[in-house]
Amino acid sequence: MTATRPAPTVLTGRFVRLEPFDAEAHTDGLFAALAHPEVFAGGYGGGPAGLPADRAAFGDWVAGYGNADDARKFVVRLIGGADGGGGAGDADGVGGTIVGASTLGDLDERTEQLQLGWTGYDPRVWGTAVNPETKLLLLGHAFTHGYGRVKIQADSQNDRSRAAILKLGATFEGVLRRDRVRADGTFSGTAVHSILIDEWPAVRAGLEARLARHTAPIELADRS
């Protein structure tokens, strides 16, 4: 099957809706969700030193992060319940609180490969249905468009992200040593994982089984 580049589109699950990134519509919501030290602590955005100093700096940063010309960048928004549009909703007026972002990038139709990455979430949704459903939607989007290999990477020292990737059912391929420069100028290794099209049915079944254990809409706790 020949890969075809997906057009920007909305992807909808039971708990989240993924929307193509729009800087004007989404930056305030992403700032509220992601501009926290614990989000950047594990390597997101280049690590702790990459955390933008304020809303203006965040706007400049997020407009470029994972937003190459060949990328499909998505904002993750809750659906269902008070935080999913049943109550006040998000500050942009659309409804449904923005809780993160993720990207399909490095799209290569000839080799039928891409990378699923540049992913960050509001800490209040860590451990919920948000990540598995986001991955289910994005992986399905990639494989439906004929891609045969999806790469998922993490900073080699980010144990939490690496464990989450393995829990998806991805295969660990190895560590690229001294591969990237963090925002503070230090070097990091990159732990590389992948999912192949032949493995997708089993990975999909695993994600669907995890999501089946969640029944109630996701509720966000107030930040102290």
TrEMBL record:
Record-linked SUPFAM superfamilies: Acyl-CoA N-acyltransferases (Nat) (SSF55729)
All copies of domain N-acetyltransferase, residue ranges: 17-170
Family matches, as Gene3D superfamilies: 3.40.630.30
Keywords from the UniProt entry: Transferase
Coiled coil ranges: none
GO molecular function, one term: acyltransferase activity, transferring groups other than amino-acyl groups
Pfam families reported for this sequence: Acetyltransf_3 (PF13302)
PANTHER family: BLL6696 PROTEIN, N-ACETYLTRANSFERASE DOMAIN-CONTAINING PROTEIN
Name of protein: GNAT family N-acetyltransferase
Lineage start: Bacteria, Bacillati, Actinomycetota, Actinomycetes, Micrococcales
